[in-house]
Structure formats: C-alpha cells, structure tokens
Automatic annotation (TrEMBL), chains A, B:
Molecular function in Gene Ontology: hydrolase activity, acting on carbon-nitrogen (but not peptide) bonds
Domain Amidohydrolase-related: 75-422
Name this protein carries in UniProt: Amidohydrolase
Matches recorded under Pfam families: Amidohydro_1
C-alpha cells in the first residue's frame, strides 16, 4: 500500500499521518483509554506511533509523500470486526421476514440458495463490503459458498477477512476437501489481508466423524475452524434428546475444542457446557449477533458473562443480512450492551468500556487476529476508523465510551482505513460502486429468488 | 408558512410539491400501504393530494410559487413522533451511566436538576430539536420544567410539540397551578403547532388528591394529561405493598382514566390492570421507550400485545437522553419490534407493518393528534419526511416495510418537513445552528453539573 513516490531521501515514507484526533487505545491492563490530540503515524500499512508529541509535518523530509488526514474533532478507533457473517446474503435482505428459524431455512433460504451462482455471490459480497466499509467494519469472518469469489472481492475492495468455505456432511468428502483446499490456497491472499478457516456448517448438519476430521485437518494445517454451534436453546435440547450430548459436548468429543475454534452464536450454551469449555486447550472464541436472536424470538442470548469468567473472548457479529437485516457491527455493539444488561438484570454489567473491549480485542481474538489488529498500538496493522461526534445526537460528550456505544451510530464513521489504505473518505466509498452493484444485482433477482423447482440445499432439522 | 408570493392568478399557491417518491399511506383498514411514483401536493401547510396522476408542473399556473422537491428514489413517510421525552435533558446525555434507576435519580439527575436554569433548558431544547429533526422526528411530547422556554424553541425551530410543565405534590398547589397556566396560555401557540398537557410527574410523586385535581382540571379545560405511571415492575410492586393498589388503579381512582391520558412507559402494567384500562372512558395512550428499559435492566417492557387487545394505542418514545442516550425514534421503532418479538417469544408478532403503524397513527393518537397528523392523507398537516434507501445497507429492497424498520436508520432521513415547511434539506438543518448551541452549552456545564450543594429536586422512593 506504499504510494509509488513514497521513498524520499533514502527513508521509507509514512503512508499516512492522522493528526488532531482523540485515539481510543488500550492501557497495560487492556482497559479502554483515550489519548487526546493524538497523531497516528502509519508506515507500510502498520501503525508506527500513536503520540501526543507535537509534529512539525513540514520539517519531516519523508512526510510530504504520505497522505495526511486532519481529524480534529474525530475519534480514531480500531476498525470494527464482523466476527460472523455470510456477506453475500445481503442479496436476500428482507426475503424471509417474521418467521421462526425453521421456516426461514426450510421454506425460503435453503430453497433460494440452491439457485446461487458465483455472480450472485460476487455481487452480494461487493454490496456487503460496501455496507461494512460505510459502517466502519474493516475485517469480517465469512462462512459461505463460492468463497473464491468472496476472496476476489476482498482483494478488490481492500478489506481484511477471514474466509471459510462452508460444507455439510450431505456433500460427502467433497465438501470438506473443497473447504480445506480453499483454506490452504487462499490463506495469505490479498497482500496478507486474507486469512482462512475450515468451515463445517454445524453439529446438526455435519456428523461426528466429519467434525473429528475437521479437527484433525485444523491441527495438521494450523487452521482456525469456524462453525455454528448451540445457535439456540432448541438445538441444545434436541441434541440432548437425540444424542445425550449438547452441541458443545459434540464439538469437544470431536476434538474441536483442542484447536482454534470460532463458534457462531452459542445462545444455546448451557450450564453443563461451561466446564467443558473451561477444559478446552484450543483458542476458543464466540461470535454474538444479538439482533437476529431478538428477531427470531430466541429465548436466550449469548452467555457473555459466563464466557468472560472462562476467559473466552466474545466478538461482535451480524450474521447474514437475510436474518439480521443489516451488517451493522456498531449496532451489534450497542445491542450487546443493552441485551446483556437486560438479560443479567444488572445495569452495571456490560459497561460501555466493556462493549468497546468486545468490539476491539475480543473480536480480533475471536477471529484469530488478536496479535495483528484490534488496537491502535505500534506494530499493529493500520485498520483505523475515524468517527465524527459533532452531530447533535452525540453532544455534549460527558462520557466518551457511552457516547460511542450508546449515542453514536455507524453513520458517524467518516473514514475507514485498512492496512493504511483509505477505503472510505468523508463517507465516500473509494473502492466500490454501489449503484453499479445494485443495478446488476436487480437483474439477478428473478432467477435467484425462484423457488418453483422445489429443491433446497439442506434440511433444517436439528 | 405560505410563501410571500404564493398568490398567483387569484389562486392560492401550493406551498410544496414533492414528486417521484414512494409514499407510505394507510389503506381503508389502516394497513400500511405504499404508492409508487407519487406526487404529494401541500397547500397552506396541509396535504392536499397524494396522487399518481402525472402532473405537468409547468402547466399549473399556481405552482411556480411553490417549492418543488424531486424525491425520486426516496420514501415519503409521516414524520415520526417522539411520544415521551424530556428534550432539554440532552444536556445531561452520559452523566449517569450503568446505574440502577434509583441511583440514577437520587445520586445524579435530581441533584443536577436543582441547578437547572432557563438558559440550560433553552440550549438543551435547541440541541434536542436539532437531533430530532435530523432523525426525522416532526413532533414530540415533552414533560419537563421551564416549558415556556421549550415552547419558544419550538416556535423558533419549526417543530410541532405537545408540551407539559411537570409538577410534584412537594411543590404544593403552586406546581399544579403553573402547569395549568402554562397549558392554557401556550396551547395553540407557534401557529398552532403547540398543543399542551397537564403534567403531574407520577403517582409516586403526586398524591391521590392532586391526581384527582389534575383529572378535574383536564376535564374542565379539555386538556390531555401526560404522566409517568407503572414505569417499571418495582413501582407496581411497591405501590401494591404500600397502597394495595397498582399505579394504574391509582390513576383510575383519581379519575385520570376518564380523561385523555398519555401514560409514559407502563412496563409495570400487570394483568389486573387490564380490566381497569378496559373500562377507561378517556382516550388513553401509552408511550414506550424500550432502549431505556434495557439500559436500566428492567425485567419487563411495555405490554404492547395486551394493550393492543384493549385498543389502546402505543406510541414510540425515547424518554430523555440522560437515560436513553439518544432521541432516536427510528431506533425506538426497530427496538420495539425486536424486543416485542423476543418478549412474546413469537417471531411473527410485531411485524414491520405493525411497527410502522405504531410509528404513525398509534403515536399521533397517543399524543392527542390522531386527526391532525400521522398519515399522508388529504387534509392532514404536512409533517413529512423523505428517506433515502439507496445506501448499501438498505439494498436490495425485497420487503419495503422490513427495509424501513430493520435496515434503515435515522441517518437515512434526508428531508424533514413540518406544516409544509422544510426544516432539514439533504441533511442540512435550516432552523438551528448546532455548533453555536454546543458551544454555549459547554460554558453552562460547570454550574449545571455541580452537585456539591447536596440539594435535589425530589426523592426517588416509589
């Protein structure tokens, strides 16, 4: 991402200098802290410094080659991470409303997905990336089909992503092999912005032997496994009735708790799962997407407090837009705080600082990038967003974390930067053309939405 | 609001023509419907027509004097109504976070409110109106102090409002008299945009005799009464323990269910209250502000389904920003749908069309303006918002009500119109200067926030 004329006087030029912002940082105990009137120096896509030292830009010979953003009045934060989504499903936003999850899957989504073409995935992924960049999301963990296409979109649009090709046991060995092939082939792609996962769909669609095979492959190849598990309480109850084990116990039996594992949702994690999770030797993370749980009227949400006591990071996600209606991680952050307070009956729990910790380091750990991103600290990748708090809805600021979590909205993100490259400047997308994408997507709709064939890709029968 | 040169050829000019929009209307059964490629004609602040007839603007002699908005690609909707707020409290946004309600009142808010000056109220109300206009709110029901000041801000900024001067029994007869004087003096103000209420604070701060007096005055003067009641379950339990009656039964005993009554919150409305409410002879409405209930970790929310069965309209509100963090009614609409689904355990309940009905006719009925606003229909006042759905987060549109409720955000409102007058055009506020207001408010903060005096305006002891 170094600009072509970035070398001056034999020194490597900084890619980017952001001045005058208030920077959200983590202190030595990982508490959220703020540095006022900060300058952020980015070189070769990495954060070199977050400093309050006055800098005389003109006096530094290597700086004229860099891009300079005057961010006075703005907050610089680590870019948000969407820890669990199916990006291309934005194409299906609104096709299955006000339904229980089994009808949502069996009557609408899985029949429609039997029509999916690579073009649909490509256009959906582009639209999703546009939505996410506009909402301050710099990285997403995606679990879907035709993922080579999604990888190409990631390369094109400049985002960071962890990508996994989903598979079911109903596909035989081929699904798993394709998932592994994808993961090995694409990791490190897009100038290192792409990491990959093995992506078995869920314990209710992938059998025990295949889950064990996934664990073995993950260990062999050092891959993260990204799967849905204990999505809701019904799944846990059904699993107990059919197999005498919870979905978490099934993962454990397959060896998946002894590799790096990203569990989507986990609202069906129950008391007896906690000691099982406590014995995990892999790095386990959970992605929580609370809007969809409310919309599906699930009786519980992700047990964030219990997971915290186990030291398991809970990252923020949106799931696909076909259930969640949006890929708004900012909204997931606020809703997580609200729903957690309500669920625990404790207004002091999940403070705004805690919510910001989930949105930063816990999210990056959940997707296996805990050392690379998630904090504005020297050596981390320069995934940075600038948030404007001058709007009437965010003034006055008596409590900056609360303003960010409960008053600001994703639309207050003005600038989105990944690897030091500006992907949105003053709310203008620089790498994606939304009207063009929407126009092409419209044309795809009749064949994508057709359910007259009676096929579906899978049965929801947990 | 007729423009000065509005008369041409002896005909009254239309104030405003909006063309090319999709208009949200109500059908004969009050179901939400949409008229595509609609033209909305506004004359003298009233909606004259919502039509799909092609109009040759140049050929109509009276039209050149009118303002013309080309709204292709936008949705025209009735302006949102904030059915319960304390607008000036935006000045206190974030001062009391992550606290139970009793500490929030006793330790922070009521001590700070003993410092309130008219200037604080004025600046807070201005900032609140700026936030609301930007969020597509055209009318708000306010319950606070120094309400003449709020009325002056409403006159200045062009919004519509129902205003009530709050009082406690601890103020003696003087509080009630001031509230009545305000209500009688200000009603019909700001060219008819101001209506008024009597505003006894709540059954736990206003005694039975004073509540009965409020009912009597309301009947005598034809005034709405706006009060907090059964705000949470604790209040109901405490009321039962102390008085053997629920807050709703206390209102009933005082005669307040036989006048027009706006009840804020009602999350503590219990089973035994339902027959009491069913026997009400006044027009009762309830304002629900779900974000704050989650934030305070209250165990229940407004019982929307039970109230619907009684025919009691439930309007949307935000409460004050000191608890709710924002005055975002769009967010209240989405959260109402989500929380209702979750609370009832029924994903089919509170559909997006129902949510839009709450946001329109139920809200306007709750604030006593059911005949004046709330629908884009001839003869109604021209309180209209234009919403842009071209952003990536609202595309594609498979289900327009769902897109509006669950994907769109208040920041998608581009234009806000009250009484036919444009208050925000393309997100630019035309009647309020936010940086100026914020700058003045900053200066007020040290004296407003001072709690060293040990005073407070009231005790929270339900």
């Amino acid at each position: 991402m170094t600009s072509p004329d970035a070398k001056t006087d034999g020194k490597t030029a900084a890619d980017l200098i952001i001045t005058g912002c208030t920077a959200l940082v983590h202190d030595d105990h990982e508490q959220i802290d703020f540095v006022e009137d900060a300058t952020i120096v980015v070189r070769d896509g990495l954060i070199e410094a977050v400093t309050t030292e006055p800098m005389d830009l003109a006096a530094l010979p290597d700086l004229p080659a860099a891009e300079h953003i005057d961010a006075r009045g703005q907050i610089a934060m680590p870019g948000l991470v969407n820890c669990h989504t199916h990006a291309p499903m934005v194409a299906l936003r609104g096709v299955a409303e006000d339904l229980p999850v089994e009808e949502w899957f069996n009557d609408v989504i899985w029949p429609i997905e039997s029509n999916l073409t690579e073009k649909d995935v490509e256009l959906g992924a582009r639209l999703a990336c546009a939505e996410m960049i506009r909402g301050g999301v710099t990285c997403f963990a995606d679990h879907y089909f035709s993922m080579d296409t999604v990888a190409a979109v990631v390369a094109e649009c400049g985002m960071r992503a962890n990508l996994g090709e989903a598979y079911f046991s109903s596909q035989g060995a081929e699904g798993r092999e394709r998932s592994l092939d994808f993961a090995l082939r694409q990791r490190g792609g897009a100038d290192g912005r792409i990491t990959t996962s093995l992506a078995p769909h869920a314990p209710y669609t992938v059998d025990d032997a295949d889950l064990a095979k996934a664990a073995q492959l993950a260990r062999e190849h050092g891959l993260l496994v990204h799967t849905h598990a204990a999505e809701n309480r019904d799944q846990t109850d059904t699993s107990l009735a059919r197999h005498g084990r919870t979905p978490i116990e099934i993962l454990q039996g397959a060896g998946l708790l002894d590799v790096d594992l990203l569990i989507a949702h986990g609202t069906g994690i129950v008391e007896r799962d906690l000691p099982v999770l406590a014995r995990a030797t892999g790095r386990i993370g959970v992605a929580s997407a609370p809007r969809g749980y409310l919309k599906f009227a699930w009786p519980t949400t992700t047990p964030v407090r219990a997971l915290r006591e186990l030291g398991i990071p809970v990252g923020l996600g949106t799931d696909g837009a076909a259930s969640n209606s949006s890929l708004d991680v900012w909204d997931a952050m606020a809703l997580t705080a609200l729903v957690q307070k309500s669920t625990e009956g404790d207004p002091r729990w999940l403070t705004s600082r805690q919510a910001l910790h989930h949105a930063t380091l816990q999210s990056t750990r959940a997707v296996g990038l805990g050392q690379e991103i998630g904090s504005l600290a020297p050596g981390r990748k320069a995934d940075i967003i600038l948030v404007d708090l001058t709007g009437p809805h965010t003034q006055p600021v008596h409590d900056l974390p609360a303003t960010l979590v409960h008053s600001a909205r994703s639309s207050d993100v003005r600038t989105t930067i990944v690897d030091g490259r500006v992907l949105m400047r003053d709310r203008e997308l620089l790498t994606l053309d939304v009207p063009g994408i929407v126009g092409e997507l419209e044309e795809r709709m009749p064949s994508l939405l057709d359910r007259s064939h009676g096929r579906k890709i899978q049965d929801y029968d947990t």
